[in-house]
Design brief:
Blueprint (H helix, E strand, L loop, with lengths): L41 E15 L9 E5 L4 E2 L3 E6 L3 E16 L1
Antiparallel strand pairs: 1-5, 2-3, 2-5, 4-5
């Protein structure tokens, strides 16, 4: 008696290719504004275009690493940085208004 061979369905995983404009370390998005001494990074999302972004990060230190990615996915350089309250907040300044994401560590 002949039996038909077993048919195995092969599924190809879907892979999304993302263009990276700048190396970014592993970051943790913080929800809320309470101080956490174990926190080492903060992700700020600026939804409203502005020339000045005031960011409360509550990292407990003045971060030396700030990476800005605009809404179109491009790395932004040439911003001014002012530390407002040590270990708590900072202000980023630009020549033109835009929205995007600030990665702070």
């Amino acid at each position: 008696m002949l039996t038909e061979p077993a048919v195995t369905e092969i599924r190809t995983p879907v892979v999304e290719i993302v263009e990276v404009h700048a190396p970014i370390a592993t970051l943790y998005e913080v929800i809320g504004s309470d101080f956490n001494p174990a926190r080492t990074a903060y992700k700020h999302i600026q939804t409203i275009p502005a020339t000045v972004w005031t960011i409360e990060h509550y990292l407990g230190f003045d971060p030396g690493g700030v990476t800005i990615i605009d809404d179109d996915g491009y790395h932004v350089d040439g911003f001014g940085i002012q530390y407002l309250e040590p270990g708590v907040s900072l202000r980023l300044s630009y020549d033109i208004a835009f929205g995007g994401v600030a990665y702070i560590s």
